[in-house]
Amino acid sequence: MNALTTRPELRKKIVLLSITVIIEGVAFIFFWSVLRKTAATHMQASSASRTSDALPNLLSDLNLILPMSLLAILLGIVCAFYLEEWLSSTSWIRRFIESQVAFLTGIPSLLYGLLAVIIFFGYAGVFKATRTTFQHNTALFYTEMLIFILMVIPVAIKATQEALRSVETPIRESTYALGANRWQVLTQQVIPRAFPQMLAGGCRAMSQAFAAAALLTGIHIWSHTTGLRGLPDRFMLFLGGALLLSNASSFLTEIYVPASTQQN
Amino acid sequence: MQTDSQNGSQNTPVIEITDLKVRYGDSPALNGISFDVHQNEILGIIGPAQSGKTTLLKVINRTLEFTPDTTVEGTVKLDGVDIDTIGDVYGLRQRIGMVLPLPVGLPLSIYDNVAFAPRTMGIRAKSELNEIVERCLQQAALWDEVKDRLNSLGTKLSGGQQQRLTIARALSHQPEILCLDEFSIAVDPVTTMRIEEVLKTLQAEMTILLVTNLVQQAKRLANRTAFFLNGDLIEIDTTDVIFSENPANQATYDYVNGTFG
Ligand SMILES: Nc1ncnc2c1ncn2[C@@H]1O[C@H](COP(=O)(O)OP(=O)(O)OP(=O)(O)O)[C@@H](O)[C@H]1O
Ligand SMILES: [Mg+2]
Fold this sequence. Notes:
Oligomer: heterodimer
Distance between the termini of chain B: 28 Å
Bound molecules: adenosine-5'-triphosphate, magnesium ion
Low-confidence stretches of chain B: 1-9
Strand content of chain A: under 5%
Number of helices of chain B: 10
Order of helices and strands of chain A: EHHHHHHHHHE
CATH architecture of chain A: Orthogonal Bundle
Strand order of the largest sheet of chain A: 1-2
Number of domains of chain A: 1
Number of strands of chain A: 2
Helix content of chain B: 25-40%
Number of helices of chain A: 9
Mean pLDDT of chain A: 71
Distance between the termini of chain A: 12 Å
Protein backbone atom coordinates (compact mmCIF):
# COMPACT_ATOMS: atom_id res chain seq x y z
CA MET A 1 0.00 0.00 0.00
CA ASN A 2 1.22 3.48 -0.80
CA ALA A 3 0.92 6.37 1.57
CA LEU A 4 1.33 10.08 1.31
CA THR A 5 4.51 11.51 2.79
CA THR A 6 4.42 13.50 6.00
CA ARG A 7 3.75 17.23 6.15
CA PRO A 8 7.33 18.53 6.68
CA GLU A 9 8.52 16.13 3.98
CA LEU A 10 5.90 17.52 1.62
CA ARG A 11 7.00 21.06 2.40
CA LYS A 12 10.61 20.23 1.48
CA LYS A 13 9.47 18.67 -1.76
CA ILE A 14 7.42 21.72 -2.64
CA VAL A 15 10.49 23.91 -2.10
CA LEU A 16 12.48 21.69 -4.46
CA LEU A 17 9.66 21.76 -6.98
CA SER A 18 9.49 25.55 -6.93
CA ILE A 19 13.22 25.78 -7.59
CA THR A 20 12.78 23.43 -10.53
CA VAL A 21 9.87 25.41 -11.91
CA ILE A 22 11.77 28.69 -11.66
CA ILE A 23 14.82 27.26 -13.45
CA GLU A 24 12.56 25.80 -16.05
CA GLY A 25 10.61 29.01 -16.52
CA VAL A 26 13.76 31.01 -17.16
CA ALA A 27 15.13 28.39 -19.54
CA PHE A 28 11.80 28.17 -21.33
CA ILE A 29 11.55 31.91 -21.95
CA PHE A 30 15.14 31.94 -23.14
CA PHE A 31 14.57 29.16 -25.65
CA TRP A 32 11.43 30.75 -26.90
CA SER A 33 13.24 33.97 -27.66
CA VAL A 34 16.09 32.08 -29.35
CA LEU A 35 13.57 30.15 -31.37
CA ARG A 36 11.86 33.26 -32.65
CA LYS A 37 15.18 34.74 -33.72
CA THR A 38 16.23 31.48 -35.33
CA ALA A 39 13.09 31.21 -37.33
CA ALA A 40 13.65 34.67 -38.73
CA THR A 41 17.35 34.18 -39.48
CA HIS A 42 16.78 30.82 -40.97
CA MET A 43 14.05 31.83 -43.35
CA GLN A 44 16.41 34.23 -45.08
CA ALA A 45 19.30 31.83 -45.06
CA SER A 46 17.67 28.60 -46.14
CA SER A 47 17.10 29.50 -49.75
CA ALA A 48 20.74 30.43 -50.15
CA SER A 49 22.29 27.28 -48.84
CA ARG A 50 22.37 24.08 -50.83
CA THR A 51 22.98 21.10 -48.69
CA SER A 52 23.99 18.13 -50.71
CA ASP A 53 26.93 17.67 -48.37
CA ALA A 54 24.93 18.04 -45.16
CA LEU A 55 24.11 14.38 -44.62
CA PRO A 56 27.58 12.81 -44.89
CA ASN A 57 28.93 15.77 -42.98
CA LEU A 58 26.48 15.23 -40.18
CA LEU A 59 26.87 11.47 -40.20
CA SER A 60 30.59 11.78 -39.81
CA ASP A 61 29.90 14.07 -36.90
CA LEU A 62 27.94 11.31 -35.27
CA ASN A 63 31.21 9.75 -34.21
CA LEU A 64 31.18 12.48 -31.61
CA ILE A 65 28.26 10.77 -30.00
CA LEU A 66 29.89 7.50 -29.10
CA PRO A 67 32.78 8.77 -26.99
CA MET A 68 30.60 11.46 -25.55
CA SER A 69 27.85 9.12 -24.48
CA LEU A 70 30.38 6.83 -22.86
CA LEU A 71 31.83 9.78 -21.03
CA ALA A 72 28.39 11.02 -20.01
CA ILE A 73 27.34 7.58 -18.78
CA LEU A 74 30.55 7.19 -16.82
CA LEU A 75 29.96 10.57 -15.25
CA GLY A 76 26.39 9.56 -14.44
CA ILE A 77 27.57 6.36 -12.81
CA VAL A 78 30.18 8.13 -10.72
CA CYS A 79 27.59 10.69 -9.69
CA ALA A 80 25.09 7.96 -8.77
CA PHE A 81 27.68 6.15 -6.66
CA TYR A 82 28.45 9.39 -4.89
CA LEU A 83 24.80 10.10 -4.20
CA GLU A 84 23.82 6.61 -3.21
CA GLU A 85 26.85 5.30 -1.38
CA TRP A 86 28.42 8.39 0.15
CA LEU A 87 25.73 10.95 0.84
CA SER A 88 23.08 10.29 3.45
CA SER A 89 19.54 10.16 2.15
CA THR A 90 18.69 13.31 4.07
CA SER A 91 21.53 15.38 2.62
CA TRP A 92 20.33 18.47 0.78
CA ILE A 93 22.79 18.05 -2.09
CA ARG A 94 21.40 14.60 -2.67
CA ARG A 95 17.80 15.72 -2.43
CA PHE A 96 18.39 18.59 -4.82
CA ILE A 97 20.21 16.51 -7.43
CA GLU A 98 17.65 13.75 -7.13
CA SER A 99 14.72 16.06 -7.65
CA GLN A 100 16.42 17.57 -10.71
CA VAL A 101 17.20 14.11 -12.04
CA ALA A 102 13.62 13.02 -11.48
CA PHE A 103 12.40 16.02 -13.41
CA LEU A 104 14.90 15.75 -16.27
CA THR A 105 14.34 12.03 -16.77
CA GLY A 106 10.59 12.62 -16.77
CA ILE A 107 10.77 14.74 -19.91
CA PRO A 108 10.04 12.78 -23.08
CA SER A 109 13.19 12.48 -25.18
CA LEU A 110 11.35 13.96 -28.15
CA LEU A 111 11.41 17.30 -26.37
CA TYR A 112 15.16 17.04 -25.99
CA GLY A 113 15.47 16.41 -29.69
CA LEU A 114 13.48 19.53 -30.44
CA LEU A 115 15.49 21.46 -27.92
CA ALA A 116 18.63 20.32 -29.72
CA VAL A 117 17.24 21.48 -33.04
CA ILE A 118 16.40 24.85 -31.60
CA ILE A 119 19.83 25.37 -30.11
CA PHE A 120 21.59 23.93 -33.11
CA PHE A 121 19.90 26.27 -35.53
CA GLY A 122 20.15 29.09 -33.10
CA TYR A 123 23.90 28.71 -33.18
CA ALA A 124 24.62 27.40 -36.66
CA GLY A 125 21.97 29.57 -38.25
CA VAL A 126 23.65 32.76 -37.17
CA PHE A 127 26.81 31.82 -39.01
CA LYS A 128 24.98 30.49 -42.01
CA ALA A 129 26.49 32.89 -44.52
CA THR A 130 30.09 32.26 -43.56
CA ARG A 131 29.67 28.81 -42.07
CA THR A 132 32.77 26.67 -41.94
CA THR A 133 33.10 23.04 -41.03
CA PHE A 134 34.66 24.15 -37.80
CA GLN A 135 31.67 26.22 -36.83
CA HIS A 136 29.34 23.49 -37.92
CA ASN A 137 31.21 21.03 -35.76
CA THR A 138 31.34 23.25 -32.72
CA ALA A 139 27.63 23.93 -33.07
CA LEU A 140 26.98 20.21 -33.15
CA PHE A 141 29.42 19.67 -30.33
CA TYR A 142 27.79 22.16 -28.00
CA THR A 143 24.32 20.96 -28.88
CA GLU A 144 25.23 17.37 -28.19
CA MET A 145 26.98 18.43 -25.01
CA LEU A 146 23.87 20.10 -23.72
CA ILE A 147 21.70 17.17 -24.65
CA PHE A 148 24.04 14.85 -22.81
CA ILE A 149 24.06 16.98 -19.73
CA LEU A 150 20.30 17.32 -19.69
CA MET A 151 19.31 13.87 -20.84
CA VAL A 152 21.94 11.15 -20.83
CA ILE A 153 23.56 11.93 -17.50
CA PRO A 154 20.29 12.06 -15.54
CA VAL A 155 19.11 8.82 -17.13
CA ALA A 156 22.44 7.19 -16.28
CA ILE A 157 22.27 8.55 -12.72
CA LYS A 158 18.76 7.31 -12.18
CA ALA A 159 19.39 3.87 -13.68
CA THR A 160 22.55 3.38 -11.65
CA GLN A 161 20.85 4.52 -8.46
CA GLU A 162 18.01 2.10 -9.05
CA ALA A 163 20.52 -0.67 -9.68
CA LEU A 164 22.41 0.13 -6.49
CA ARG A 165 19.19 0.26 -4.51
CA SER A 166 18.18 -3.14 -5.85
CA VAL A 167 20.99 -4.62 -3.78
CA GLU A 168 19.09 -5.30 -0.60
CA THR A 169 20.17 -3.78 2.69
CA PRO A 170 20.49 -7.22 4.37
CA ILE A 171 23.14 -8.20 1.83
CA ARG A 172 25.14 -5.07 2.52
CA GLU A 173 24.61 -5.44 6.25
CA SER A 174 25.72 -9.04 6.33
CA THR A 175 28.78 -8.25 4.26
CA TYR A 176 29.65 -5.39 6.57
CA ALA A 177 28.96 -7.66 9.53
CA LEU A 178 31.76 -9.90 8.26
CA GLY A 179 34.14 -7.00 8.70
CA ALA A 180 34.35 -5.99 5.05
CA ASN A 181 35.10 -2.34 4.38
CA ARG A 182 33.13 -0.08 2.11
CA TRP A 183 35.34 -0.72 -0.88
CA GLN A 184 35.13 -4.51 -0.45
CA VAL A 185 31.35 -4.34 -0.09
CA LEU A 186 31.09 -2.22 -3.22
CA THR A 187 33.43 -4.23 -5.42
CA GLN A 188 32.59 -7.70 -4.19
CA GLN A 189 28.88 -7.47 -3.52
CA VAL A 190 27.14 -4.37 -4.76
CA ILE A 191 28.71 -3.91 -8.19
CA PRO A 192 28.52 -7.57 -9.28
CA ARG A 193 24.87 -7.64 -8.24
CA ALA A 194 23.94 -4.28 -9.70
CA PHE A 195 25.97 -4.66 -12.88
CA PRO A 196 23.29 -6.05 -15.23
CA GLN A 197 20.89 -3.29 -14.23
CA MET A 198 23.59 -0.66 -14.58
CA LEU A 199 24.38 -1.96 -18.04
CA ALA A 200 20.71 -1.86 -18.97
CA GLY A 201 20.50 1.71 -17.71
CA GLY A 202 23.55 2.67 -19.74
CA CYS A 203 21.92 1.22 -22.85
CA ARG A 204 18.74 3.13 -22.13
CA ALA A 205 20.69 6.36 -21.82
CA MET A 206 22.63 5.59 -25.03
CA SER A 207 19.49 4.80 -26.94
CA GLN A 208 17.97 8.11 -25.94
CA ALA A 209 21.12 9.89 -27.05
CA PHE A 210 20.98 8.18 -30.41
CA ALA A 211 17.30 8.89 -30.78
CA ALA A 212 17.92 12.57 -30.13
CA ALA A 213 20.81 12.56 -32.58
CA ALA A 214 18.66 10.85 -35.19
CA LEU A 215 15.93 13.39 -34.74
CA LEU A 216 18.48 16.15 -35.01
CA THR A 217 19.80 14.72 -38.25
CA GLY A 218 16.33 14.19 -39.62
CA ILE A 219 15.16 17.69 -38.88
CA HIS A 220 18.39 19.10 -40.23
CA ILE A 221 17.81 17.42 -43.58
CA TRP A 222 14.14 18.23 -43.56
CA SER A 223 14.77 21.87 -42.85
CA HIS A 224 17.16 22.14 -45.79
CA THR A 225 14.82 20.52 -48.23
CA THR A 226 11.61 22.22 -47.16
CA GLY A 227 12.93 25.28 -45.40
CA LEU A 228 12.09 25.50 -41.75
CA ARG A 229 9.21 27.91 -41.72
CA GLY A 230 9.63 28.70 -38.09
CA LEU A 231 8.01 26.68 -35.36
CA PRO A 232 4.72 28.38 -34.49
CA ASP A 233 3.92 29.72 -31.06
CA ARG A 234 1.27 27.08 -30.70
CA PHE A 235 4.09 24.54 -30.75
CA MET A 236 5.74 26.32 -27.88
CA LEU A 237 2.48 26.19 -25.99
CA PHE A 238 2.33 22.42 -26.38
CA LEU A 239 5.99 22.20 -25.42
CA GLY A 240 5.34 24.22 -22.29
CA GLY A 241 2.35 22.03 -21.47
CA ALA A 242 4.43 18.87 -21.85
CA LEU A 243 7.12 20.29 -19.58
CA LEU A 244 4.64 21.20 -16.88
CA LEU A 245 2.91 17.85 -17.06
CA SER A 246 6.14 15.91 -16.82
CA ASN A 247 7.03 18.08 -13.88
CA ALA A 248 3.71 17.32 -12.23
CA SER A 249 4.19 13.61 -12.82
CA SER A 250 7.66 13.53 -11.25
CA PHE A 251 6.31 15.52 -8.30
CA LEU A 252 3.37 13.21 -7.83
CA THR A 253 5.53 10.10 -7.92
CA GLU A 254 7.83 11.71 -5.38
CA ILE A 255 5.23 12.53 -2.74
CA TYR A 256 4.10 8.94 -2.63
CA VAL A 257 6.28 6.59 -0.64
CA PRO A 258 6.47 3.20 -2.33
CA ALA A 259 5.48 0.30 -0.08
CA SER A 260 8.96 -1.21 -0.20
CA THR A 261 10.61 1.73 1.55
CA GLN A 262 7.88 2.22 4.11
CA GLN A 263 8.62 1.60 7.72
CA ASN A 264 6.57 -1.04 9.41
CA MET B 1 20.74 -27.30 33.52
CA GLN B 2 23.64 -24.92 33.41
CA THR B 3 25.93 -24.51 36.33
CA ASP B 4 27.72 -21.36 37.34
CA SER B 5 31.11 -22.88 36.68
CA GLN B 6 30.23 -22.95 32.99
CA ASN B 7 29.86 -19.24 32.66
CA GLY B 8 33.40 -18.38 33.56
CA SER B 9 32.76 -18.17 37.30
CA GLN B 10 34.42 -14.77 37.80
CA ASN B 11 31.74 -13.04 35.63
CA THR B 12 34.11 -10.73 33.81
CA PRO B 13 32.00 -8.33 31.73
CA VAL B 14 32.88 -8.37 28.00
CA ILE B 15 30.08 -6.05 26.97
CA GLU B 16 28.91 -3.27 29.24
CA ILE B 17 25.80 -1.46 28.12
CA THR B 18 24.88 1.75 29.92
CA ASP B 19 21.65 3.66 29.43
CA LEU B 20 21.35 2.74 25.77
CA LYS B 21 18.64 4.63 23.92
CA VAL B 22 17.85 4.09 20.25
CA ARG B 23 15.32 5.90 18.12
CA TYR B 24 14.30 5.34 14.50
CA GLY B 25 13.29 8.84 13.46
CA ASP B 26 10.92 9.79 16.24
CA SER B 27 9.87 6.33 17.33
CA PRO B 28 11.86 4.83 20.18
CA ALA B 29 13.17 1.27 19.89
CA LEU B 30 15.26 1.06 23.09
CA ASN B 31 14.49 3.26 26.08
CA GLY B 32 17.64 3.41 28.14
CA ILE B 33 18.76 -0.11 28.94
CA SER B 34 21.77 -1.11 31.03
CA PHE B 35 23.29 -4.53 31.57
CA ASP B 36 26.53 -6.49 31.26
CA VAL B 37 27.31 -9.54 29.21
CA HIS B 38 29.75 -11.86 30.93
CA GLN B 39 32.75 -13.63 29.48
CA ASN B 40 31.89 -17.02 27.95
CA GLU B 41 28.25 -17.01 28.92
CA ILE B 42 25.30 -17.73 26.72
CA LEU B 43 22.93 -14.83 27.27
CA GLY B 44 19.41 -15.58 26.12
CA ILE B 45 17.46 -12.54 24.94
CA ILE B 46 13.72 -13.05 24.77
CA GLY B 47 10.75 -10.80 24.29
CA PRO B 48 7.77 -10.33 22.02
CA ALA B 49 8.01 -8.80 18.53
CA GLN B 50 9.16 -5.18 18.29
CA SER B 51 10.79 -5.24 21.69
CA GLY B 52 14.13 -4.05 20.34
CA LYS B 53 16.16 -7.28 20.36
CA THR B 54 17.43 -7.01 16.80
CA THR B 55 18.11 -3.32 17.30
CA LEU B 56 20.33 -4.15 20.28
CA LEU B 57 22.44 -6.55 18.21
CA LYS B 58 22.78 -4.00 15.43
CA VAL B 59 24.05 -1.43 17.92
CA ILE B 60 26.67 -3.84 19.16
CA ASN B 61 28.22 -4.51 15.75
CA ARG B 62 27.50 -0.97 14.57
CA THR B 63 25.47 -2.00 11.54
CA LEU B 64 22.62 0.21 12.75
CA GLU B 65 24.67 2.98 11.13
CA PHE B 66 23.32 1.84 7.77
CA THR B 67 19.74 2.58 8.75
CA PRO B 68 19.22 6.25 8.01
CA ASP B 69 17.79 8.61 10.59
CA THR B 70 18.64 6.63 13.70
CA THR B 71 19.78 8.15 16.99
CA VAL B 72 21.85 6.20 19.48
CA GLU B 73 22.57 7.49 22.99
CA GLY B 74 24.33 5.85 25.89
CA THR B 75 27.45 3.73 25.77
CA VAL B 76 28.32 0.22 24.74
CA LYS B 77 31.72 -0.95 25.88
CA LEU B 78 33.49 -3.95 24.47
CA ASP B 79 36.33 -5.14 26.73
CA GLY B 80 36.14 -1.79 28.46
CA VAL B 81 36.41 0.27 25.27
CA ASP B 82 33.50 2.41 24.08
CA ILE B 83 32.66 1.02 20.63
CA ASP B 84 31.90 4.50 19.33
CA THR B 85 35.51 5.48 19.89
CA ILE B 86 36.86 2.50 17.97
CA GLY B 87 38.29 3.92 14.77
CA ASP B 88 38.59 0.60 12.98
CA VAL B 89 34.91 -0.27 12.76
CA TYR B 90 35.71 -3.12 10.35
CA GLY B 91 38.03 -4.64 12.89
CA LEU B 92 35.29 -4.29 15.50
CA ARG B 93 32.83 -6.15 13.30
CA GLN B 94 35.32 -8.94 12.76
CA ARG B 95 35.35 -9.50 16.50
CA ILE B 96 31.59 -10.09 16.43
CA GLY B 97 29.91 -12.90 14.56
CA MET B 98 26.37 -12.06 13.45
CA VAL B 99 23.66 -14.46 12.33
CA LEU B 100 20.58 -12.68 11.00
CA PRO B 101 17.04 -14.12 11.26
CA LEU B 102 16.56 -14.59 7.54
CA PRO B 103 19.50 -16.28 5.91
CA VAL B 104 21.31 -13.92 3.59
CA GLY B 105 23.35 -16.05 1.27
CA LEU B 106 25.93 -13.92 -0.47
CA PRO B 107 25.79 -14.56 -4.20
CA LEU B 108 28.98 -16.60 -3.98
CA SER B 109 29.84 -20.27 -3.84
CA ILE B 110 29.43 -22.11 -0.55
CA TYR B 111 33.19 -22.11 -0.17
CA ASP B 112 33.53 -18.40 -0.92
CA ASN B 113 30.73 -17.52 1.47
CA VAL B 114 32.68 -19.00 4.34
CA ALA B 115 36.08 -17.89 3.04
CA PHE B 116 34.91 -14.30 2.52
CA ALA B 117 35.75 -12.95 5.96
CA PRO B 118 39.09 -14.77 6.31
CA ARG B 119 40.08 -13.40 2.91
CA THR B 120 39.17 -9.84 3.86
CA MET B 121 41.36 -10.38 6.91
CA GLY B 122 44.22 -11.19 4.58
CA ILE B 123 44.35 -14.97 4.78
CA ARG B 124 45.39 -16.20 1.34
CA ALA B 125 46.92 -19.64 1.86
CA LYS B 126 44.70 -22.25 0.24
CA SER B 127 45.35 -24.87 2.89
CA GLU B 128 44.50 -22.49 5.69
CA LEU B 129 41.29 -21.40 3.96
CA ASN B 130 40.32 -25.01 3.32
CA GLU B 131 40.79 -25.79 6.93
CA ILE B 132 38.71 -22.81 8.12
CA VAL B 133 35.91 -23.61 5.66
CA GLU B 134 35.75 -27.23 6.75
CA ARG B 135 35.88 -26.42 10.47
CA CYS B 136 33.15 -23.77 10.25
CA LEU B 137 30.86 -25.88 8.11
CA GLN B 138 31.34 -28.75 10.55
CA GLN B 139 30.44 -26.52 13.45
CA ALA B 140 27.33 -25.31 11.67
CA ALA B 141 26.29 -28.94 11.05
CA LEU B 142 26.38 -28.39 7.31
CA TRP B 143 29.63 -30.03 6.21
CA ASP B 144 28.26 -33.48 5.43
CA GLU B 145 25.54 -32.09 3.21
CA VAL B 146 27.71 -29.78 1.13
CA LYS B 147 31.23 -31.21 1.17
CA ASP B 148 30.83 -32.52 -2.37
CA ARG B 149 29.56 -29.29 -3.85
CA LEU B 150 31.49 -26.53 -2.19
CA ASN B 151 31.71 -24.67 -5.47
CA SER B 152 28.00 -24.44 -6.14
CA LEU B 153 26.12 -21.27 -5.31
CA GLY B 154 25.30 -20.71 -1.66
CA THR B 155 21.99 -19.14 -2.59
CA LYS B 156 20.85 -22.43 -4.16
CA LEU B 157 20.80 -24.23 -0.83
CA SER B 158 17.54 -24.78 1.01
CA GLY B 159 16.43 -22.16 3.54
CA GLY B 160 17.64 -24.19 6.51
CA GLN B 161 20.94 -24.96 4.83
CA GLN B 162 21.44 -21.29 4.00
CA GLN B 163 20.83 -20.43 7.63
CA ARG B 164 23.52 -22.87 8.68
CA LEU B 165 25.77 -21.39 6.02
CA THR B 166 25.36 -17.98 7.65
CA ILE B 167 26.27 -19.56 10.98
CA ALA B 168 29.41 -21.05 9.42
CA ARG B 169 30.16 -17.64 7.94
CA ALA B 170 29.74 -15.91 11.28
CA LEU B 171 32.22 -18.34 12.81
CA SER B 172 34.72 -17.97 9.98
CA HIS B 173 36.38 -14.87 11.42
CA GLN B 174 36.75 -16.47 14.85
CA PRO B 175 34.67 -13.89 16.70
CA GLU B 176 34.97 -13.21 20.40
CA ILE B 177 31.24 -12.64 20.52
CA LEU B 178 28.64 -14.55 18.57
CA CYS B 179 25.23 -12.93 18.12
CA LEU B 180 22.44 -15.13 16.88
CA ASP B 181 19.14 -13.52 15.94
CA GLU B 182 16.41 -16.15 15.81
CA PHE B 183 18.69 -18.52 13.97
CA SER B 184 16.28 -21.44 14.12
CA ILE B 185 13.37 -19.86 12.22
CA ALA B 186 14.19 -21.67 8.99
CA VAL B 187 15.93 -24.69 10.51
CA ASP B 188 14.25 -28.02 11.23
CA PRO B 189 14.08 -29.22 14.87
CA VAL B 190 16.66 -31.99 14.49
CA THR B 191 19.24 -29.66 12.96
CA THR B 192 18.34 -27.02 15.53
CA MET B 193 19.27 -29.49 18.26
CA ARG B 194 22.58 -30.22 16.53
CA ILE B 195 23.37 -26.52 16.29
CA GLU B 196 22.40 -26.03 19.93
CA GLU B 197 24.92 -28.71 20.89
CA VAL B 198 27.55 -26.87 18.86
CA LEU B 199 26.72 -23.61 20.62
CA LYS B 200 27.29 -25.28 23.98
CA THR B 201 30.77 -26.36 22.91
CA LEU B 202 31.52 -22.96 21.33
CA GLN B 203 30.76 -21.34 24.65
CA ALA B 204 34.22 -22.37 25.82
CA GLU B 205 35.76 -20.13 23.13
CA MET B 206 33.36 -17.21 22.91
CA THR B 207 30.53 -15.25 24.45
CA ILE B 208 27.15 -15.90 22.88
CA LEU B 209 24.15 -13.58 22.62
CA LEU B 210 21.17 -15.67 21.66
CA VAL B 211 18.06 -13.76 20.60
CA THR B 212 15.25 -16.22 20.34
CA ASN B 213 11.50 -16.40 19.99
CA LEU B 214 11.53 -19.90 21.39
CA VAL B 215 11.61 -19.41 25.14
CA GLN B 216 12.42 -23.08 25.57
CA GLN B 217 15.57 -22.58 23.54
CA ALA B 218 16.70 -19.92 25.99
CA LYS B 219 15.82 -22.28 28.82
CA ARG B 220 17.87 -25.08 27.26
CA LEU B 221 20.94 -23.04 26.40
CA ALA B 222 21.24 -19.79 28.27
CA ASN B 223 23.13 -19.23 31.49
CA ARG B 224 21.31 -15.99 31.98
CA THR B 225 18.26 -14.65 30.23
CA ALA B 226 17.13 -11.09 29.56
CA PHE B 227 13.48 -10.27 28.97
CA PHE B 228 12.77 -7.29 26.70
CA LEU B 229 9.42 -5.61 26.27
CA ASN B 230 8.68 -2.57 24.09
CA GLY B 231 12.23 -1.30 24.22
CA ASP B 232 12.69 -1.82 27.94
CA LEU B 233 14.81 -4.40 29.69
CA ILE B 234 12.25 -5.78 32.13
CA GLU B 235 14.46 -8.29 33.83
CA ILE B 236 17.82 -10.01 33.50
CA ASP B 237 18.77 -12.89 35.73
CA THR B 238 20.00 -16.44 35.67
CA THR B 239 17.87 -18.61 33.45
CA ASP B 240 16.83 -20.64 36.45
CA VAL B 241 15.30 -17.58 38.09
CA ILE B 242 13.65 -16.28 34.92
CA PHE B 243 12.00 -19.63 34.34
CA SER B 244 11.16 -20.22 37.98
CA GLU B 245 7.78 -19.70 39.62
CA ASN B 246 8.82 -16.30 40.92
CA PRO B 247 10.86 -14.05 38.63
CA ALA B 248 11.06 -10.43 39.79
CA ASN B 249 8.48 -9.26 37.30
CA GLN B 250 5.01 -10.62 36.63
CA ALA B 251 5.30 -9.85 32.89
CA THR B 252 8.36 -12.10 32.71
CA TYR B 253 6.44 -14.94 34.29
CA ASP B 254 3.52 -14.43 31.94
CA TYR B 255 5.75 -14.30 28.87
CA VAL B 256 7.80 -17.42 29.57
CA ASN B 257 4.68 -19.32 30.49
CA GLY B 258 2.86 -18.24 27.38
CA THR B 259 0.07 -16.43 29.21
CA PHE B 260 1.33 -13.02 28.11
CA GLY B 261 -0.98 -10.38 26.63
N1 LIG C 1 14.69 -0.05 9.96
C1 LIG C 1 13.76 0.40 10.83
N2 LIG C 1 13.16 1.58 10.62
C2 LIG C 1 12.24 2.05 11.49
N3 LIG C 1 11.86 1.43 12.60
C3 LIG C 1 12.42 0.24 12.87
C4 LIG C 1 13.41 -0.34 12.01
N4 LIG C 1 13.80 -1.52 12.53
C5 LIG C 1 13.10 -1.66 13.66
N5 LIG C 1 12.27 -0.62 13.88
C6 LIG C 1 11.37 -0.43 15.01
O1 LIG C 1 12.11 -0.56 16.22
C7 LIG C 1 11.40 -1.31 17.17
C8 LIG C 1 12.24 -2.50 17.62
O2 LIG C 1 12.45 -3.36 16.51
P1 LIG C 1 13.37 -4.64 16.55
O3 LIG C 1 13.51 -5.15 15.16
O4 LIG C 1 14.62 -4.32 17.27
O5 LIG C 1 12.47 -5.63 17.41
P2 LIG C 1 12.68 -7.16 17.68
O6 LIG C 1 12.62 -7.32 19.15
O7 LIG C 1 13.89 -7.68 16.99
O8 LIG C 1 11.38 -7.79 17.05
P3 LIG C 1 11.18 -9.21 16.32
O9 LIG C 1 11.02 -10.22 17.41
O10 LIG C 1 9.93 -9.02 15.54
O11 LIG C 1 12.37 -9.44 15.45
C9 LIG C 1 10.10 -1.70 16.52
O12 LIG C 1 9.10 -0.83 17.00
C10 LIG C 1 10.34 -1.51 15.06
O13 LIG C 1 9.16 -1.12 14.42
MG1 LIG D 1 14.21 -9.11 15.47
